[in-house]
Design goal:
Layout: H1 2-22, E1 27-29, E2 32-39, E3 46-54, E4 57-64, H2 77-93, E5 107-112, E6 116-120, E7 125-130, E8 133-139, E9 146-148, E10 154-160
Antiparallel strand pairs: 1-6, 2-3, 2-10, 3-4, 4-5, 6-7, 7-8, 8-9, 9-10
Length: 161
């Protein structure tokens, strides 16, 4: 009788844990995702961006333009402000890097392992996190497939769970 009571208690506890784990939460990790820039803010130098995530592996491709238009001189103080902001943002996104003006490259290609991509529909956030990378996007109010980063760049999100 005591074994039966213990067994029933164990089964009930396991069922409770399964129900808790299975309850729908607003934050979900995805299996694969692609986040691609579609509209770039004129306030920074980013030209193109692609974050390709598949089963814990993330490939990042970023390009930056030194010119707003062909007639712009990159020695303008406005350019310097945008470059400083771009470098500051890259160092925040890639915390293990130490990017400075003298080693800034207009092309970034990086790969990471053991990365997670989480979608929190309640907080309207998409987060990429792992050793060496941290990036957060805000989900648009009008379209759940449209994301915006802290610099005002817009992205298109496709993913599978």
């Amino acid at each position: 009788m005591k074994k039966r009571t213990t067994m029933i208690g164990f089964v009930m506890m396991m069922c409770f844990m399964i129900v808790l784990a299975g309850c729908s939460t607003s934050k979900n990790e995805v299996k694969s995702a692609q986040i691609m820039s579609v509209v770039n803010s004129k306030e920074n130098l980013q030209e193109n961006a692609l974050y390709h995530f598949d089963n814990g592996k993330l490939d990042v491709y970023l390009t930056f333009s030194p010119f707003e238009n062909p007639n712009t001189d990159p020695s303008d103080s406005d350019y310097d402000k945008k470059l400083d902001e771009t470098i500051k943002n890259l160092n925040k996104e890639f915390p293990n890097e130490d990017i400075k003006k003298d080693n800034f490259d207009n092309k970034v290609e990086k790969s990471f392992k053991n990365v997670t991509v989480s979608i929190d529909s309640e907080k309207k956030k998409v987060t990429i996190s792992g050793k060496g990378i941290t990036k957060e996007f805000t989900i648009s109010d009008s379209n759940e497939k449209r994301l915006v980063d802290n610099l005002g760049n817009e992205y298109e999100l496709t993913y599978s769970k």
